[in-house]
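Handoff note, outgoing to incoming analyst
You'll be picking up this chain. Sequence as last confirmed:
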Amino acid sequence: MPATKPGSDPDIVPQDVPNSAPASAFLFPSFQYVPSIPTDDSSVETFVKGFVLPPTLNPQHEFLTRKEKNTILHEPDARREFPGARSVHEIVVLICGHGGRDERCGKMGPILAAEFEDKLARQNVPVISEPPPHETVRPDYSIQGYQPAARIGQISHIGGHKWAGNVIVYIPPSFKSNPLAGCGIWYGRVEPQHVEGIVGKTLIDGKVIKPLFRGGIREGGEILRLDID
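Most recent structure output, in case you need it:
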């Protein structure tokens, strides 16, 4: 007979589990960074209510009771539990590097990450790894020719290994000279030879590369659609 989980049987005394280190999170398309999130169940639930759940519901939820609706609606006051939350003002490049289900992304991810780092450096765009600065420490975004720094991260599965390499880029709203400011662009079948074009055309000039385009989203959650030639 298989053993039951600790705590499910009154004859089994569960072992004390040490507190886990707090987590942090980047949130898109709202371009926010939360530096410290306790990982106990109650704190994670509060975080979801404050930052993840929507402020309004889809009409399909009209059949729910008021109590049920409130459980899946955004609660702004919950954000007070997470001091230090701040806006993200750098370009963020997310690359699927998950090789557990399909080796294509697992192999392509590190190659593309290195390629992005090289091509960004050639465009004099600094690549950073430290947390976003506090709101009190901001560059002057109104300076002519302002160019934000960039951040590169490999992430888990985002759907469609057949589209490897999968790359999502987010252009911060403060990069006002870029026509895609506040948008997230999802590219598929990205190969190393495409990276220079993505950096120059999309990250700097704000143009979508249509042959690679898989989808996009605006800061407010609106789907970004392209005109088909």
